[in-house]
Amino acid sequence: MYFFKKKKNGNGTAHAAETGPAPEEQQLIDSLNRFESTCKAWRPGIAEIISELGSISNDTEAEFLAIGTSLQTFAKGCSESSARASSTVAIFEGGGGFTISAFKDLFEHAHNEVESCAAAISNGTAGMNDLMRRIETILDLRAFLKKLSHSISVLGTLMKIETARVGEAEFSIMTVIVDELAREIEKDGDEIAAAAKAAKASLTAAQVQMAAKMKKFNKDLSVNKEHVRDILNEIDRITMQAKCTCERIKGRASRISPEVGNVISALQYHDICRQQMEHIGEALDEILTKISGMGTMEKDEKIALAAWTNNAIHIQIQQLEHVINETTAAAGNISSHLSKISDIAEAQSEDAGMLVEEEGSGNDRIARVGLELKALSDMLSESKNMALDMGKAVSEVTDAIGSMSKQVANIELISENIGLLALNTIIKVARTGEAGRGLEVLADEIRKISARAKDKITKGSEIINAILGTSSEFKKTLSEELNKELVSTDKVFQQTHHAVQELMDTDAEVVKSLNEISGSTKKLETDIMSLISGLRFAGIIKSRLGTMASGLRTMPAEIEANIPAAAMDTTRGLPQDLDALATRYTMHSERKVHQAALDSIKNDGNSTGSSDKHVAVTGNDLGDNVELF
Are 589 and 627 within 8 A, CB to CB? Predict the structure, then answer.
């Protein structure tokens, strides 16, 4: 407001003259001039803040793009791990991997076949015992032949004495022949005994050796069967554990996907953040434009501009604080989801590690099954060797017994000759009359002994022939039975070997799948931890926007220091322009912050104050835009 003062002119006439503005008016003009100078000083700083807002947007955009790319890769890896886990479960359910129920049956069959071979050998052992009993009867024949030889020899001696008494030289020749035949009987009997003893010794040695082998064979077979049963039961347990672990990995992968989706949805924050910073930049640019044109404004316009600038800056400070606080909340939200993903990925990695460890244990047990199968195969070879040893022993017995046939036939012939000789003697002695009566009695006794011996010798011959027939049949039966069992067993062993190989091949497929699962899950765990530790956007925004807010807070203070509050209070900062500023916002949350800032100024009772109050915006206040805040 300007005022006027009366002055005298040269002729002393008083007149009214304009002497300048009143002191209060001049003070306001000076304040506006200082405000104008201050605004000029602000311009580079505001321009720098506008540029910095764009720089922050670009810097954080690169980080968010990197996060998005990493999450896409992570999600793909999770999907692949889930697919591998599903595939592995399918292998188990389809009878692959460590699933060995059919293999159990094959192994049981293989054991039964080897046991059948052992049974065939046991039957052979029983045949060897029968041979031993028959050989004992041959030794009994030897005792009879020795007694027969002795009896004939005694009678021959008596015939010599009687012949000497009678004085018939012809009878002397007969007694010599009888004595020679007796010695031949004893000689052949000794040979039969020697052959029988040799056969018995050979058979006894074979029986002792066979008994020891069979005892060890049966023990090894029982131990092998027990080992295989334990190993296969353990593999079954590992199979179930591996299947459950794969199911868990698959389930966790399905839990990760929603969390990844939540993080990806949360990454929309950057678009919101960028828009808000763009809007703050636009508002600051408008402030910059207005204060740059201050030189052409009238006093009232300058006062209104000061009030508007004060309120507009206050609003932008609130907008910056809102972005900072909600950025912190968004970062916490993203970190929370990433931490959940990290926990699940860590659990997956542990499961995968355990899975590989279990697989290694299962693979080791499969290898042990292979060793047990090899041991079973060795037992089959041992059964072949035992059968060969048994056949060899029986062949030796057969050869020994076969040599007896010649002696028995010779003894039979001798016995017949003795009988004929005795009969001939009896006939000749009858011509000598009463004098040859004693020779007749002796010759008849020899004839009787010869007749009785013939039956005994015939039975011995039958025993020997029976032994020969039995041993021949024994070898044939043993060979046929064993060959039959071996052919069947070989077939089963081939099937079992094939089953083991298939098991190992399928296991290799499982190993590959499990190693891929383990490697991928460990990488996923590393990637997600790296992603969490690499989050920088919240710190960048908080630091740099905080610096901006601190810089802007000095401006209302300078306005208040230069321009009286009463002067600005008359204008209220051009509310229509502030309303126009609000229309620039595309997000409802920004408009809420804008209105809340104005309400805060109104409640403080002036338009120059700066409030540090943070205005919370709830989810119910969100507009049509998809926002995190």
Answer: yes
Element containing residue 606 per DSSP (H, E): none
- 229, part of any domain: no
For the question of whether the overall pTM of this predicted structure is more than 0.85, the answer is no
| Angle 45-48-49 from CA coordinates, rounded to 5° | 90
CA dist 594 and 312 (Å) reads 9
- Kindly tell me the number of DSSP H helices and DSSP E strands found in the chain: 10, 2
Contact (CB, 8 A) for 92 and 246: yes
**H/E element, 113:** helix 101-166
pLDDT for the residue numbered 611: 39
Read off φ and ψ for residue 26, nearest 5 degrees: -65, -35
Q: DSSP letter at 535?
A: -
Contacts of 511 (CB under 8 A, 6+ apart): 359, 363
Q: Residue 256: what pLDDT?
A: 75
d(CA 297, CA 310): 17
Whether pLDDT at 414 is above 60: yes
Cα 325 to its chain centre, rounded Å, is 48
- The rounded distance, in Å, linking the Cα atoms of 467 and 130 is 9
Q: How far apart are CA 208 and CA 496, in angstroms?
A: 34
The answer on 397 and 382 residing in a single domain is yes
Instruction: Give the C-alpha separation, 94 to 96, whole Å.
Output: 6
Q: What is the torsional sign of CA 350, 353, 359, 360?
A: negative
Q: Which of 272, 308, 270 is nearest to 581 (CA)?
A: 308
pLDDT at 407: 75
The residue with tokens 């039959």 is 484
Burial environment of residue 598 by CB neighbours within 10 A (0 to 12, 13 to 18, 19 or more): buried
Same domain, residue pair 466 and 562: no
Question: How far apart are the C-alpha atoms of 249 and 354, rounded to whole Å?
Answer: 11
315 shares its domain with 415: no
Please report whether residue 591 resides in a domain. yes
DSSP string covering 414-426: HHHHHHHHHHHHH
Q: Say what percent of the chain tops pLDDT 90.
A: 0
Q: How many CB atoms lie within 10 A of CB 137?
A: 15
Q: What angle do CA 191, 193, 195 make, to 5 degrees?
A: 70
Residue 532 lies in a domain: no
Which SS3 state, helix, strand or coil, does residue 8 take? strand
Distance CA 56, CA 545 (A): 9
Q: Which of residues 493 and 573 earns the better pLDDT score? A: 493
Q: Tell me if 259 sits within 8 A of 341, measured CB to CB.
A: yes
Q: Report the range of poorest mean pLDDT among 5-9, 10-14, 377-381.
A: 5-9
Burial annotation 65-82 (CB, 10 A radius, 16+ → b, else e): eebeebbeebbebbeebb
43 pLDDT above the threshold of 80: yes
Angle subtended by helix axes 299-432 and 169-266, to nearest 10: 170
Mean pLDDT, all residues of the chain: 75
Give the domain extent around 422: 101-221+361-514
Looking at residues 485-493, what average pLDDT do you find? 69
Helices (H), 267-298: 269-292
The 3 state secondary structure assigned to 433-467 is HHHHHHHHHHHHHHHHHHHHHHHHHHHHHHHHHHH
